[in-house]
Specification:
The complex is a heterodimer of chains A (255) and B (189). By secondary structure, chain A is an alpha+beta fold. Helices cover 35% and strands 20% of the residues of chain A. In chain A, the strands form 3 sheets. In chain A, strands 5-6-7-8-10 form a 5-stranded antiparallel beta sheet. Chain A has a 3-stranded antiparallel beta sheet with strand order 2-3-4, with no helix packed on it. A two-stranded antiparallel sheet of chain A has the order 1-9. The radius of gyration of chain A is 21 Å and the shape is flat. Chain B folds into 2 domains: 98 residues, no CATH class; 54 residues, no CATH class. Classes of the chains: A alpha+beta (255), B alpha+beta (189).
C-alpha cells in the first residue's frame, strides 16, 4: 500500500501496540491526499466488511481488511458446477433470511443466507459509528443548514428527517439520517386510480463506500444526506441511476 | 486545531482567514464531501496565480475521476442546483447545461402528440390518464402560405425541434465566483 501506511505497518511490527487508530486514520488521509482522492479513503472497521467503489485504489484490500475469513471468497471457474440448477429463492419474513432451493442430479436441496433484519442492521450500524468524527458531523450539519430551509433544518435536527418535493417530477423525497431516502408520489397508480400518496422506492447510495449489512456509509451520516439532496436537486435522473432501489419490505429500506 | 481546508487555526476559530474572507466576499468555493474530518474546502483566489492553477487542476482531475460536481446558480432570482457537464481548465469556467428543467418539461408537454396516440385517445375506451396530453404545440408556428408546413420549412407534423433551433446550449460559470460541491463516486447501498 502507500508509503504512510507502509511506514505505520513497520512501526506496528517493531513496537506492537504503538500505533493507534488515530494514526491509521491520519495515514489514510495523507495517502488519499497524495493520490488525489479528494473524498478520502474509507476507514476499515474490525469485523465489518466494506463495499468500496471499485475504481478506488486498494478498494479490494480495504474491503477485506478486518473481515472474518469465511466472509471473503473469490470465485473461480472450478467453483461452477453445471449440473446444479437454481430453482427458486425468496425472503422469509419469519426467519429474516433469504432462502434458496437448488437441485442437481441427485435431488433437491435448500440453503439460506445469514439472518438479516432491521435489528441486526441497527446493531451493526451502531458499531459503524466508531469510524466517524464528531467534528465532521457537526461540520456537515452546518453545511446542510446552508442548503435547506429553516423548517427543513429544524425537522432534520429534531427528527433526523425532512421532506422535499422535486419541482420537475413532483416526487416527494423523505431524506433520512442513516436510512435510505424514501421516494413517494401522489400520482395515480398504474390503473389510473387515485390512491393518495404511495411509496415508490427506498433509494440508497453512499459516496466512496459503505459498511456491509448496515445503513452506514464511509462519510458521516449528514454528508450522505447532503449528497442525496444535491444530486436530487441537480440531476434527479443521475440520482435514481446511482441509487440501489429497495422495495418497502426489504430490511435495507429501513421502514 | 485545523480548518476544513487544512490550515492550522487557533482553537476559538471555526475557519481560517482565507476561507472566511472568501466566503464573506461571495468568492468561489469548492466543498468536497470527505471521509476524514468532514468537508474539504478549496477557495479560489483570483489574485493568487499559484493557488488558482492548483485549483483548476483539482477540478479537472475530480471530473476525470468521476466525481459529481454540483454548482449553485441563480435563475430568475431563485437559487438552483446544476451538475457540471465539463470544465474549461484554461478559462477556469464550469460548463453547465443552460436550460431550466421545469421549462424543458413544459415544452416537452407542448410537443405535438404522434398520430397513433391521437387515434388511441379518440377511442371511447381511452385511458383517462392520457387525456389532456393531446394539446397542440403552442410554440410551433404554421406556415401562413402553406398550412401543411411548419414555419421552419419542415412538414407541420414533424418530430423534435424546429430547424435552426439550438438543440443544446451551455452556460459558463467562472469558478472564482461560483459555489460548488464535489460528491465522490457512489458505491451503491
Amino acid at each position: 500500500m502507500a508509503s504512510s501506511l507502509t511506514s505505520l505497518a513497520r512501526k506496528a511490527a517493531i513496537l506492537p501496540g504503538s500505533v493507534s487508530w488515530e494514526d491509521v486514520h491520519a495515514a489514510l488521509a495523507r495517502d488519499a491526499k497524495r493520490a488525489g482522492e479528494w473524498a478520502g479513503y474509507p476507514r476499515p472497521m474490525e469485523g465489518t466488511r466494506m463495499v468500496v467503489h471499485p475504481s478506488y485504489p486498494f478498494a479490494q484490500k480495504l474491503s477485506e481488511t478486518f473481515c472474518p475469513e469465511d466472509s471473503v471468497h473469490v470465485c473461480h471457474n472450478s467453483d461452477v458446477d453445471e449440473s446444479v440448477q437454481h430453482r427458486n429463492s425468496w425472503r422469509s419474513y419469519r426467519d429474516g433470511k433469504e432462502l434458496t432451493i437448488w437441485s442437481d442430479s441427485k435431488g433437491f436441496y435448500f440453503t439460506h443466507g445469514r439472518r438479516q433484519n432491521q435489528t441486526t442492521m441497527l446493531l451493526e450500524t451502531l458499531g459503524a459509528a466508531r469510524a466517524w468524527d464528531l467534528d465532521a458531523e457537526m461540520r456537515a450539519m452546518a453545511t446542510l443548514q446552508r442548503h435547506v430551509t429553516e423548517w427543513a433544518y429544524r425537522a432534520y435536527f429534531l427528527t433526523g428527517t425532512f421532506l422535499e418535493t422535486s419541482p420537475r417530477s413532483q416526487v416527494i423525497y423523505l431524506f433520512r439520517r442513516l436510512r435510505p431516502t424514501i421516494a413517494l408520489t401522489s400520482r395515480p397508480d398504474r390503473k389510473g386510480r387515485d390512491v393518495g400518496v404511495r411509496f415508490l422506492a427506498a433509494l440508497c447510495a453512499h459516496p466512496v463506500g459503505y459498511y456491509d449489512g448496515t445503513w452506514a456509509g464511509a462519510l458521516v451520516p449528514t454528508d450522505d444526506v447532503i449528497a442525496h439532496l444535491l444530486l436530487m436537486r441537480s440531476d434527479e435522473h443521475l440520482f435514481w441511476k446511482q441509487c440501489n432501489q429497495h422495495p418497502a419490505w426489504a430490511p435495507e429500506a429501513g421502514i | 486545531m485545523k480548518c476544513a481546508c487544512g490550515r492550522t487555526i487557533s482553537a476559538n476559530k471555526s475557519a481560517c482567514l482565507a476561507c472566511t474572507s472568501s466566503a464573506r466576499k461571495g468568492g468561489g468555493v469548492l466543498e468536497i464531501l470527505n471521509v476524514q474530518g468532514g468537508d474539504v474546502k478549496i477557495t479560489f483566489d483570483k489574485d493568487d496565480a499559484q493557488d488558482n492553477i492548483r485549483a483548476r487542476r483539482i477540478v479537472t482531475d475530480m471530473l476525470r475521476r468521476g466525481y459529481a460536481l454540483v454548482v449553485e446558480v441563480e435563475r430568475d432570482g431563485v437559487k438552483k442546483y446544476e451538475r457540471i457537464k465539463s470544465f474549461d481548465e484554461k478559462a477556469g469556467e464550469y460548463i453547465i447545461a443552460d436550460f431550466d428543467s421545469l421549462e424543458a418539461a413544459r415544452v416537452d408537454a407542448e410537443q405535438e402528440v404522434p398520430q397513433t396516440v391521437v387515434d388511441e385517445l379518440s377511442r371511447p375506451d381511452a385511458l383517462p390518464r392520457l387525456a389532456g396530453t393531446a394539446e397542440p404545440k403552442a410554440s410551433r408556428k404554421q406556415d401562413p402560405n402553406d398550412p401543411t408546413k411548419c414555419a421552419c420549412g419542415a412538414k407541420w407534423r414533424h418530430q423534435g425541434l424546429c430547424k435552426g433551433t439550438k438543440r443544446r446550449t451551455y452556460r459558463r460559470l467562472p469558478m472564482e465566483i461560483t459555489k460548488a460541491t464535489g460528491i465522490g463516486r457512489s458505491a451503491g447501498g
